[in-house]
Amino acid sequence: MKSEKQADGGLRGKSTSRDGGYGWVVCCGTFIVNFVVFGIHNSFGVVYVNLLDDLQLGEMQTASIGAMAMGLNFFFGPISSALCDRFGCRVVSFAGALLSVSGLFLTSFIQEVHKMYVTYGLVWGVGSSFSFVSSIVVLGEYFNKRLALANGIATSGSGVGSLVAGPVINYLLGSVGWKNSMRILSAFAGLLWFAAMIFKPKKNLQSTGQRRERTKLFDTSIWKNKAYVLWVTTVAVFQFGYLIPFIHLVKYAEDLGVPKSKGAWLIGFLSITSTLGRVVFGKISDLKFVNRLYMYQFSIFSIGLTTLLCPLAKNYAGLVSYTLIFGFFDGCFVGQVAVITADVVGHDKLSQAVGNMFGTLAIPMSLGPPLAGWLHEAFGTYDKAFYIAGSVAIFSSLLIFGVNYMIRKQFTEREIEEQLGLKSDTSLSVSEAETASDSAYKDTESKPMLEEEEYVAVNKFCKLHCALRTSKALLVILQIAKLGCSSSNAAKPAADRNAQTRDDENDNNQAAMTAPKINFPAENSPQRAKSSGSLNIRAKVVPLKPGRSLMDWIRLGKSGQDLAGTGGLVQAVTEEELSKHNKEQDAWISIRGRVYNMTPYLEYHPGGIPEIMRGVGRDATDLFDETHKWVNAESMLEKCFIGPLKRSNVVKKAKPSRTGSGNSLNVSSGSLRSHNSLFVPSAQVDGFAVPVPPQKSQDPRYDWYQNEKIITISVFTRKKDVQVEDVILELKGGKEFDAIFLLGEKSFRIHLAFSNLISHQQVRLSGESGKIDILLTKEVAGVQWTELGQGLPGNNSFKLHKERDSRLWDCRVISVDSVTHNCKLFCCEFPNGVIMRIPVGRHIHLTRDVEGMQISRPYTVVLPSLQVDQSEREFDGRRFYLMIKLYPEGTLTPTLNPVVAGDTLQIAEYSGDFKDTRLNEAKEIFLIAAGTGFTPMIRLIRRTVMENSSVEKSVKLLFANRQEKDILWKQQLDELSDIASPRFQVFYTVTQTTPEWEGYEGRVSMEMLLEILPPPPSADTERELFIGVCGPDAFTHHIVSMLKDLSYTGRMIHAFLA
């Protein structure tokens, strides 16, 4: 990408040094901390046996020592994290090392158990917490993209430490006794000082003041989340029995006659498989079709079941098998508990949620092992302890069902589903979706709006831009001067601002990045109607009241309430009666001959009540089709159905046909016998055969002829710019032929029952005359047809295409591939006999059953790749691709998550108003996309850059996303930019950046547009510039508004909106 690789003023600059270098030394330091801390903690079971023998303490008292230390290690987690924020990781790590060494060393001089609670339980427990937490926090300062790898390497130290420490401690205990062993362990803990020295503060973070905000030590706001409360409860229940095997397994093995030397290895075996489990379940968790919550549930259930069966193991081999299984599934718990917590509360609250959870877990974690010790003392066996540990684990796994229910309920209650009429090709995240229905482009990061005088200054500056046509650099300076901003860094690459503090950065972002709230188009603006140019903005989605989402409407429909107000009776409604119900309190409407009581639905309509009120009291079919013909009104309004519309019985006398005969040919018996059968003068209306008015001279017509192998139907469209994509063919059973020819707003239909079988069909355009040939291969070659066939309903009709019923096909899913963490690419194939080539920039409509209601969403058809693949021609018109972002809280997309190859998706005909001839006119093409608003840009880029490489065009893409990981096909775009530069350039901007990010930061701003866009061309050359915009509706409205403020006209702009 030429523009992104320039050394001076390019989008990409030098990034801070992370994900390598000294960071790997820090990773080794964290490994050492894990090795020491959890090697000692997890091996307390070996020490426990010796303490029982040497001190003659009670089992409950002795087990409480180790349980208290491990519990405080977690309990002080949030406090340790806050101290790291306040004083730095190195300081906290040094303090932890001091406490750890002191606690272990002092324990070696203790004889009384209550003092051991202080030295080992409290001092060592708190010290280990300081050391462990600071090592994890500092690792995040040195790694970003490779953080998962670094964290995996570092935390594997706990498994290795447990494997090594158990046998070593057992050897020391047998050789020098437990007191000297404690002193040796305190010296061993001195390695924590060495690790603390490694954890040097990162200079660039300290110098720029990029230290995290000081966190509250006790923040209880997270407990308002009911799903989180239940989630913590499930983990706490599990933790009650979790430490019992770690502390008592060696003693249990000794009771079975296993030597201490061999028993010490049991914790090591457990640690090996635990380390393996973290890797395996981590990889499985990344698979898109895996529900990690259920994976976690299965693992906890498996731990409970094996622990429940552990008393059946009466020899060393059985105990080894138990530890291997327990450890493997324990790896899922250790590796996934924080990840699932993020799924429950969101990443922005993860630190707070994990800290509070660890603090809570310390209580049951500290109670379980002492109880197990007491049970062993009381009954002389560990059977009951393991039964309890296994039972609570199984009970905890069952509670996961409640967690899943609470999460789903939480999402639906937040009204974040894709609303009816909202474009599905968007990149709304959970937080952004809540504001997507707003009429203006709101700043979801709570940044203040520009003051009124600043907005005036922006408008003055934009006018100055058009008048002076000066350089873009000068324009940016003028804008800054007008706004009185101290810096324009908000739109510059992150790498150019590394020297600034985060506070300065936020202040500048607020001034430079935040746009005024703009309602576009204005309520009475003619832009709401389809203009003569490319710009076509449909009515906006309005905010709905709480409890008025689509899912709420579905639930209301299933509640049993009489929404129609007729007591369940269906009654015919005259036009006169319909006209009386035209108020908000009594609103009836007719759509396609069916009358509905819209009164209960008014507040659920995403387009607002006034939009529906435009059609109440009358037949609103045309009004409905203008906005969303693809919506299944019969399903959506089924519970509001009153009855059929009884129209006035007025029938106009049909004019004679052009053959001079006034008799109509009945569709059931009429046939096309002549090779010149151009007209079948009949059609079906409400189930009756009625005469069809004679064709006008400009209407399409068709004829047919044949040879030995081919039947050719020639359609004379009288339209010069007809394309092969304008033809939709459907051949059922080799005989029923249904063809639609899209000719502008109208369509021509041929619907026939052939007299003989057809095996293959093909479309051929005949030059620029507007003639289309349909080549039909005879099933039996050499047979001369005496007639083409019989006309079926709708044959030879030419009318507005929106007046035709939409056709639905069950399309087979060929493949499902992951594009990003929450986006999939579906390859689908039409049923046999259907050929539909979707034009560039158009969308099809996908229909799914959601709780008994048919819900449709528009999706732009894409390609399998930006690269040209000749194999695509083999399936031309038969296969298509959809790139769909899956919203867990959405209405339709959750039903797509389990879809796999071999399933079917219900697809309707394509729609849209983009003309690809616009690409031929333009010399400069500028595309602005947000999230999956990138989908219509895919074929535009392929068409202009790859397929027409000989034509000199400049194509630029500005691609906005929340995070770098959300960018669709980034690698392909970068490769294409390298290959096709300077004809194709791509620019990225994200709102959530990392220090390594080398593109724009923040939302698309006027400064970004000024840097990349050419000046507005003059009126006579305005068609040489094409600007395409697609994203969430609010994003699209905002971008179009900014473009118009910069004097780019509607003839230059096309907004891709469903």
Average pLDDT score: 76
CATH class descriptor name of the largest domain = Mainly Alpha
Q: Kindly give the count of domains.
A: 6
Our Rg estimate from Cα atoms comes to 36 Å
Q: Using the alpha-carbon principal axes, give the shape.
A: elongated
Weakly predicted, low-confidence segments: 1-17, 203-217, 414-539, 650-694
Number of helices: 31
CATH topology of the largest domain: Growth Hormone, Chain: A
CATH superfamily of the largest domain: MFS general substrate transporter like domains
Note the main sheet: 6 strands, antiparallel
Describe this entry's structure for a reader.
- The radius of gyration is 36 Å and the shape is elongated.
- The protein folds into 6 domains: 19-201, MFS general substrate transporter like domains (Growth Hormone, Chain: A); 221-416, MFS general substrate transporter like domains (Growth Hormone, Chain: A, Up-down Bundle), CATH 1.20.1250.20; 554-644, Flavocytochrome B2, Chain A, domain 1, CATH 3.10.120; 701-800, Sandwich (Immunoglobulin-like), CATH 2.60.40; 808-911, Elongation Factor Tu (Ef-tu), domain 3, CATH 2.40.30; 916-1055, Rossmann fold (3-Layer(aba) Sandwich), CATH 3.40.50.
- The longest helix is centred in the first third of the chain and has 43 residues, at 147-189.
- It starts with a helix and ends with a strand.
- Helices cover 43% and strands 17% of the residues.
- Helix 3 crosses helix 12.
- The chain is α+β, with helices and mostly antiparallel strands and 1058 residues long.
- Its main location: membrane.
